[in-house]
Structure formats: structure tokens, C-alpha cells
Amino acid sequence: MKAVRIHSKGGHEGLVHEDAPTPTPATGDVLVEVRAASFVPDELDWGSTWTDRAGRDRTPSVPAHEVAGVVSEVPVGTSGFAVNDRVFGLTDWHRDGAAAEFVAVEARSLARMPESLDFTQAAALPLIGLTAWQGLFDHGGLTAGQTVVVHGAGGGTGSIVVQLAAHAGARVIATGRGKAADLARQLGADTFVDLEKERIEDAVGQVDLVFDTIGGDLLARSAGIVRPGGVLVSIYEPPPVVPEGGRAAFFVVEPNREQLVQLAELADTAGLRPHVGAVYPLADTAEAFAAKQRGIPGKVVLQA
Ligand SMILES: NC(=O)c1ccc[n+]([C@@H]2O[C@H](COP(=O)([O-])OP(=O)(O)OC[C@H]3O[C@@H](n4cnc5c(N)ncnc54)[C@H](OP(=O)(O)O)[C@@H]3O)[C@@H](O)[C@H]2O)c1
């Protein structure tokens, strides 16, 4: 098969489109024929790109751990899927990713694709969808009627956080640069705070939950707008200040089939959509990484 691989530690310049062995799915895996994949721009800096879970060198390594495709093989001992099922999901960071014609994925990391999304949209959803879900509900404990501030609402993750929070019946205060205001409102935000013009602590009162995707000084100051009993959740870095009488949380997203099923249902029934900023052919993966690092908004998707 053709795959994009990196042979030694370094940046995206080392990504090469080349012949590689088609992976053999282990018990519990399925083999997926990749139609689209997506990636995190800094995943080449992570230890999991270079070693397996036992710390052994696993180069050459295939990046891009979000996949949408068609099941092409189901080994004996794997259950839940059949050949030709259309699936999407977030794959194990410590194994080869989906920048390839085929990827072997643990079946428990996949779900059936939403009917209403194409492969490109479905590949853009797993990481940001699961991150938004886990931050709002698992770590933030969001319930209907609460008020949530979403920092970076125009970004890949923030745009899903706004949609999920609004759908859950929360009052949503979106923040970011002024250019993100229209998108945030279209996605369901009640209010937008332009961080280039206003300080968050001057613009809003006490809220139940802050979901931060930006970090730094904004994250530190946001502890002050969380009411007692509320939560400050960041996906960027651990919050340096804990809200008075409240909680602070930082987490790293995990694969989760049940949550993917719920995200797929929301895509089909409530119009949940990821923001796809650009699409590149698999052979141009290095350029796709470079383009995302130059600041393309939303997710950049690779098409196999
Ligand atoms: N912990 C986890 O599991 C997890 C999961 C997913 C992502 N992440 C991390 O979370 C961060 C966000 O990811 P993402 O994919 O959502 O990124 P993204 O698509 O680049 O979104 C970030 C958003 O925040 C805005 N922003 C950044 N700095 C700002 C500032 N100083 N003032 C106002 N707006 C600002 C950006 O606007 P501009 O584009 O105009 O700058 C953009 O709209 C990344 O660092 C990523 O690695 C962590």
C-alpha cells in the first residue's frame, strides 16, 4: 500500500509518501480502508509518535490518528463490525495512524459513521468531538441551564464545544478574535466576547463552566469568573489557578466508542458539524501539516 511515514525524529519535512506493508489486524482490531484522515499539528512532537506503549522504537511511523473509511477485514475474535461498514474514530496514538491506504484499528475505538456526514467531515470529527464531549460532560459536569464560557470558539475544538453546549441547553458565551464572532453565533453561542477588545473578567459575571482552548494568561485570569462550585477546564495546559470554591481540570482526550455513537447521532439529528478548513491529497501530507501550522482555521483533512 501507499502510506505517509516519518523515519526519524523531526518535523513534518520528514514525512514521505512511499510504499509500506499493509498492516495485519490483530485480534480486537479491524482493518480499515482509509478514505479520509486528520491529524494534530504537533503530534510529531509527542513521544507516542516514536515509541510503542512499552517504550520500544516504532519508526517508521505513520501519523494522523483520526480516520473515516470502510472496514475491509474483521479478524476472528473481533466483534461489532462487518466488512463494508463505514466507520470513523480516533486511533491509538502509540500505533501507526491513518495517513495510509489501510490502517489496523482497535474496534473499540471506532463507531459507525453518521449517515449525514461524508468521509471528509467524518474524519474531522473524532478528536475535536471527543475532546469537546469529555471536557463539557465528563470533566465539566455540564447540565441544562448552566452558563459556559468557550475560549477559542472559532477553532476546531471550540466550534464543537459551542454546538454541544448549546444543544445541551446551556447558555453559551463564546470568545476569540473578532473574526470568529459570526461563526460562533451561527453555531449557537448566545454572546460573543472579542478578546482583542475586552477582558473576559470585565465582559462576563460568574459562570458555571469555562472551557479553555487557548491557555496562558487568559486561562489564569479565567479562574476569577468561575462561581463557587463551578469548573475551569482546559485542554491547552493545566490551569495555574484553581477557582475559589471550585475545581480546575486538564485532561488528554481518549478514544471512546460510546461517545462517538452519541456524536454521530447528534450529527444526524441535530446537525453537529466539524469545521473543515482545508483538504489535501494523502501524497501532500507534509504540506498539509505545514499549512495547518501556518494557521488554517479548523481541521485539515487528508484524502486517501
Ligand atoms: N488535551 C487534549 O486532549 C487536546 C485535544 C485537542 C486539542 N488540544 C489542544 O488544544 C489547543 C486548541 O486546539 P484546536 O485544534 O481547537 O486549535 P485551533 O483550531 O487553532 O483553535 C484555537 C482557536 O483559539 C483562537 N485563539 C488562539 N489564541 C488566541 C488569542 N490569544 N486570542 C483570541 N483567540 C485566540 C484561535 O484563533 P486564530 O486561529 O485566529 O489564532 C482559534 O480560533 C491546541 O493547543 C491543541 O493541541 C488538546
UniProtKB/TrEMBL annotation:
Skewed-composition ranges (Basic and acidic residues): 10-20
Region (Disordered): 1-23
CDD domains associated with the record: MDR_like_2
Residue stretches making up the Enoyl reductase (ER) domain: 10-302
SMART domains: PKS_ER
A Pfam family hit: ADH_zinc_N_2
Ranges in coiled-coil conformation: none
Domain of life: Bacteria
MF terms (GO), sorted A to Z: oxidoreductase activity
Record's protein name: NADP-dependent oxidoreductase
Protein's organism: Solihabitans fulvus
